[in-house]
Records
---
Amino acid sequence: METRLRRMREQRNSHNENARRAADSRDSVQEQSRELRERIKERLDEQKEVRTRAKLHQAKRDEIQNQMRELITQRRGKRSDEGTKSVVIQLSETIGEIDRIESRIMTDGSLSLDKENAMLKKLKTLIAKRDELLPAAEEFQVIEIDLGDMEGSIQLLRAEADSEHKAMLDANKEADAIWEEVKPILEERDFLRAEGDRLHNAFVSSREAADSIHSEIKILLDQVNEIRDELKAQREERERLIREHNQSVRDALKTPDEDEELASSLADELLKKGSITLGGTRTTDDPRPHRGKKRKKSRKIGTRRGKRN
């Protein structure tokens, strides 16, 4: 079980290592994807500004062409309805009428008081209309028209319309070029997004595998600990039995001078019986043992000298 536990720990660590590598790779890919998204956003914002500029040139072109058509209509002797006139044409006509009335008031000395007051009232209305038309005309930044020179104004408007049309086409080409630049970046972004998802799934799968093995390890570890506790208890029981057996042997081999209880019991028996029997000894009136024969003293032998001649 301990071998299996060690092998399972190695598998869990391997899964955790795979998860860590997948997470590092995922974070790196997501960082690249984030940088690409910021770059794409910048380019798309730039493209949006270019498209807006193109629409503005288109609106100016359409307004100039509308003015040019109205001038052509007037030159042919046809009258346009007031509601269909362009803002610039209305503004030009209003400014021309204001100039004419102001010039007459200043130069015509034959005007009666009533006539002059009527002209002043009309002038006030025209000035209010001019002030109302100015903001709308300034929005398109169109050129002023000289109604006294219709042919010249028509040619000027045609040239200005062509210029605005060309500016619109150039702006659209620039926006298209930006889009062509962004398209491969979008493909790379999609690839990085898919790669990031794949690495994240690999990370989640490895972590789940590691967690599953960890749960099994906990169960097996509880079993191992239970068995270890049981083995420990058995070992302690054997050691206890051995200690008790050794102690009982030591107690059985003790002499009276080593065992107080035995010495006390022998003393009591001696007092009662007057004699004590110990294993291998015999009782006698003379407790002294018989003396053996005396050993002869060994004679000392020295070196003998020979006779001298």
Note: The two ends are 101 Å apart (CA to CA).
---
Amino acid sequence: MKKLAFLFICICLLVIGTVSGYGLYINCSEKIQMGQPLKVSIDSDFPVGTSFDLVFYESRYTATEIDRQSVTIQENKQTQYRLFDTNGLRGGDYKVEIQFKGADEPRLRSDSTTVKLVKLIDRSGEITITSPLTQDVDEALRIEGSIAKLGNNGIEIEVRGPSGPLFGPQWIETKNDMKLGDGLFTRTIPVGTRGDYMVNFRDVNGFIGSITFHVTSTSPTTSLTTISIPPPTKVTTRPPVTTIATEMPSPTKSQFSIVPTLLAIFIISWMVIGAIGKKYR
């Protein structure tokens, strides 16, 4: 009898709890590699049209908000998904949390899950790049380096450029560094276009990190010399000018210098004629 009474009470509490609230459940991986998207699933039996925010925080001394996305319950009540970008974040502790926009939180059932803790693992320090991060477009893209302690297990690379996916994801071989045990890799992928190219590295344990290469033109260019051409001179047509050389007057040709000479000749002639006349008288 007591067992039946206890079972009846449990059923009543379950029914009352179900009727008195709604369930809301979020779920995601507890650990992900830095650079991988954080995928969060959302399930709920809230009424259609109920909206709330899913917020991504960094958890250190204080919670720092990184991103938030809105979620609205649909009529089919199917599982919804939201992705949070982790590129550029540092390794450490993070969390995703539901934030209600109204008074919906008190209506939650006690078994709801509205907070999930996430650890972001930074493996980018395992990558060593020995090829230049800035390369000439005629020689790019040369990807050379090593992955710490990888040996000859191989890595998967994916290249994305200004126009989107360019290469991979594809596995390439690595050669074991006998001294350090690192995995040495080299691969050249023609790009043909200037811009930034991001290379993602993965191994069997998951995402390792991303490296960005800058492809530009470093070849010397021939500078063009600009020659300034003066505007054409306006030519005005004029009749030809005849220049007459002015002859300098000579003493013998001057009309003023010949008069005294003639006068002197006349006087001398007059005197001679007078003297001759006197002689024959």
Note: Residues 125-216 form a domain with the Immunoglobulin-like fold (CATH 2.60.40.1930).
